[in-house]
Here is the input.
Amino acid sequence: MRGPVLNKERIDVIDQTLRDADTKMDKAVDVAKEEFAAIRTGRAHPGMFAKITADYYGTPTPIQQLAGFQIPEARTVIVSPYDMSAKSAIERAIRDSDLGVNPTDDGKVLRVVLPELTEDRRREYIKLARAKAEEGRVAVRNIRRHAKQTMDRAEKDGEVGQDDVKGAEKRLDGMTKKHTDAIDALLERKEAELLEV
Here is the structure.
């Protein structure tokens, strides 16, 4: 009776390790996606403001929680603060951000007009996107390394067999490739957006 129970435990240790690694790798891809969204392209989109925080009653608060965003034209964003007392803090946060824009106060809303991207600025943003992609790939590889160490430890402790670990490693490598490929695809899309005039 003891044999099959041990075998099930073996599979559970490996499956749990692989599930955890997959979940963490998904998160790494999501973080890369958010990082790419924050990099400005020639077109306006609300994701550009995702990383910007404003001082709201002494607390750094993401401006996406403080205002609504509308895109009436390709390079124009209308920022509508929910609380008018936060408008100047939002304006300052946008001006001080790395977006390189100067919002104008239209009384009730802030109007942000994005300047055309210069060739140098596009190259700068592509370099930034590539750096963010590399950070994502490194995060995925670190998760893979950690999962492999966990499985190696389980093998050394006699919890799982060598064959189980070898099979799981192949699955882990496939998972790693799937996630790094996803980051590469996101980078490719972002570069195409940045090169679009």
